[in-house]
Amino acid sequence: MEQNAFSWIAAKAMLINAANHIREYLAFCTNDTMRSQAERYKGQVAINLVQLEIQKNNFKSANAIAIKNLDHVKNFSKGYVAEAYSTLAYTQFLLKDYKNSVSTSKQSVNEHIKIGNYDGVKASREMLIGNYMKLGLKEEASKEAQLILDKSFKLES
Q1: Burial of 37 (0-12, 13-18, 19+ CB in 10 A)
Q2: In angstroms, what is the C-alpha Rg of the chain?
Q3: Fewest beta carbons less than 10 Å away: which of 15, 25, 89, 128?
Q4: How far is it, in rounded angstroms, from Cα 11 to Cα 49?
């Protein structure tokens, strides 16, 4: 679909509709496995909404959605906490909130390590490098780059 205002609005409407259907489903679903899957989908829909808001440079809106999604996955879909932290760190970076993005990126690194996701660790370390460079902290950026080269699973503090 061509990128234009109509396609963006249509995509956002579909995602909001999907979120509403998930909410309605959760209101009556009693099967724990099915509830867990629906909660996971709800988190994925939120990340897709963040991506749409970023496309329109609506960084504050994207950040607000990312914050709510992190809280959601912490409660209902712990396997997706690392991705939620990564998404939040990126929105913070886009808002030029580099100090908070550093903190969130470190949490993202640690969560990706917990689940053994090296690609996620690498991406989160790359986010740390970008933040450190924006903050003028070249030595810290260099250390993160070395950890990437070493394929390190060292936890962030």
Answers
A1: middle
A2: 17
A3: 25
A4: 9
What element of type H or E holds 20?
helix 5-28
Banded pLDDT at 1 (limits 50, 70, 90)? very low
pLDDT tens digits, 52-68: 999 999 999 999 999 99
| pTM, rounded to two decimals | 0.91
Burial of 53 (0-12, 13-18, 19+ CB in 10 A): buried
Q: What are phi and psi of 46, to 5 degrees?
A: -60, -45
In the block, residue with structure tokens 């496309």: 55
Query: CA 109, CA 58: separation in Å to the nearest integer?
Result: 26
Measured distance CA(71)–CA(127) in Å, rounded: 21
118-134 vs 138-149: helix crossing angle, rounded to 10: 160
Q: What is the pLDDT of residues 68-80, one digit of tens each?
A: 999 999 999 888 9
**Residue 106: which of 50, 154, 46 has the closest Cα?**
154
